[in-house]
Amino acid sequence: MHDQQSEQIRSAWRGSLGHTKRAADSVWLSASADSTNSVIARAIADRNATDRKAGTSRPLNETVRTLFADPDSVSIAAKTDHTADDPGSDDPEADALAELTRRADVDYDANDADTAAAWLASAGLPPDPEALAVQVPVSVAIADTQTAGRGRLGRAWYNKAGESFIASYAVAVPKALAVGGSSGWLTMIAGLAALDALGAELTNDSARELDPEARFTLKWPNDVFLIGRKLGGILTELTAVDDEWAAVTFGIGLNLFVDPDELPTEDSTSLQLHYAPLPSYGELRDRLAAGMATALRVRLSAFASHPEIVGHLRGEVTDRSWTLGRKVRAQLVAGGAAAGSAADGKTCLGEVITGTAESINADASLTVRLADGTERTITTGDVGVLPDA
Fold first, then answer.
1. 323-385 CATH fold
2. How far apart, in whole angstroms, are the C-alpha atoms of residue 261 and residue 276?
3. Could you give the 3-state DSSP secondary structure of residue 79?
4. Contact 305, 133 (CB under 8 A)
5. Of residues 217 and 110, which shows the higher confidence score?
6. Given a cut of 90, is residue 389 above it in pLDDT?
């Protein structure tokens, strides 16, 4: 059943990203890119170079807000295949399935707004995102596939056209959030935004859980898990900094319609294996991309405006953690994040420790209790959850 469903949905139309265009400040779509994180880095560098040549300057938050507003002015086309909306599918059965799962009675944009308002209220803030003192801009680059995608610690990033969600979000946050002691929360917030979008989409749509134990969780620091298996990951990069703002890029990849025999590892999974029927690939991608854009904007704007909500964020991550309370194996970065980078861009890993993940700390680090009772605090490293004995 899964194979038949994925074949039908894979051939359905790619969609117009209508929801995403309303949720994000600017949007870039490509059939193929080397890396969507790299697309954003080049776009920001090109925009800054153009401004310098013209003898002008603009704050980094304005650069991010208008990043893809004029795609012709961004010299990234040479390395990518920028495409317009797909004309549609030639498969009537796939079109019929897409139409069946596209619920006309659901206003997805309004639901994303309601979810954001409810989250603000839960954090003790006024439920109006526009009332926040700091407004974080969000632009997004989306590709059907990427040829040089990479994950955290320099790992390869599996993806396949029509099966994977591949998007990178450029945001501009106050500089102190990205280079100070709170920077660890940025990846955590991106993970929570992904859970927001997945939860809202699967609650609002006609998809039903195939497993009653289905629950989206986060594995510290950057993986999205579903029933104890990796559904996707997040790569956070500091892209640019000016006097007031920092541009941060979140690359987010999810397995949507990957068949079991194509999963990259035995510990990974795919959304179609746990929920059915799903919307078409294009529709699902659009809704998820829009939901993440809205959640990122609201959560980051709230954090920038009210840093004291870190306690609320900590509670959320603790509640949604797949890591806490479990035995873990942590391989620490050799010599710290800066000293642990090899010439090929991969991170050098050093000491290995094993223990029980005890807590997420105020700076988003992880505390692990070793067998002898001592505790270690991990800020950067590769943390795997070990199987139950």
1. SH3 type barrels. (2.30.30)
2. 19
3. helix
4. yes
5. 217
6. no
Burial of residue 368 (CB within 10 Å: 0-12, 13-18, 19+) is buried
177: its two tokens:
């959030």
**What are the structural domain ranges in the chain?**
2-317, 323-385
Instruction: Give a three-class secondary structure readout of 93-140.
Output: HHHHHHHHCCCCCCCHHHHHHHHHHHHHHHCCCCCCHHHCCCCCCEEE
Structure tokens at 153: 């610690």
The predicted-structure confidence for 222-232, as pLDDT tens digits, reads as follows: 999 999 999 99
Strands (E), 132-215: 138-146, 164-174, 208-209
Topology given in CATH for the domain delimited by 2-317: BirA Bifunctional Protein; domain 2 (3.30.930)
Instruction: Read off the tokens for 102.
Output: 């596209």
**CB contact at 8 A, 250 and 235:** yes
pLDDT in tens, 8-54: 443 344 567 899 999 999 999 999 999 999 999 999 999 999 999 99
Closest to 233 in 3D by CA, of 295, 330, 161, 150: 150
| Predicted pLDDT at 344 | 43
Question: What tokens appear for 27 in the block?
Answer: 């949007």
